[in-house]
Amino acid sequence: MVPIVNTSDQRGRNLILVGFMGTGKTTIGKDAAKSLGFRFVDTDALISRNAGKSIPDIFAEDGEEAFRLLETEVLEECAKGTDQVISTGGGIVTRERNHPLLKQAGYVIWLKASPETIFDRVKRNKSRPLLQVDDPLKTIQEMLADRADLYEAVQDLGINTDKLTLDETLFGIVESARVALQLG
Q1: Global confidence as pTM
Q2: What CATH number corresponds to the domain at position 38?
Q3: In angstroms, rounded to a whole number, what is the distance separating the alpha carbons of residues 69 and 11?
Q4: What are phi and psi of 93, to 5 degrees?
Q5: 99-124 tens-digit pLDDT
């Protein structure tokens, strides 16, 4: 059963997608926004725009901590809005400060996938700064293990995307959001 989300003053009327890189947050988020009649917001795109440089450049020039501070600032702004599908960066849950912001912003769905599925989806993408290492699969396994409890802590619903098509995942997300956010 999908939990009904309190959309009174304590919680925004938004759908927030969290999960590791390569789980489909941006791709599915855009389609979910169209289906729900919501605006699509990508926190990584906003960070890049606000900083005037790419995510890899922020990591290289300013470091991960500077990126995480920018991420929190963008999340604070997004949390003030409504009728949005918010696609977050994979590491947004690593800052405890972001947990209440995510819950306040709306209905949080954790898109899950196995390390092998994630690796297969992102292995050709050179714009993933945290995976520019000798053994990216091992890095994915370690990072997922470190973050699993953090994703669990902020989620209202988790969906494993390993064996689902994009359409199946989209349907599950949109329908659960309609129920949870009481969209009719």
Answers
A1: 0.90
A2: 3.40.50.300
A3: 23
A4: -80, -10
A5: 999 999 999 999 999 999 999 888 77
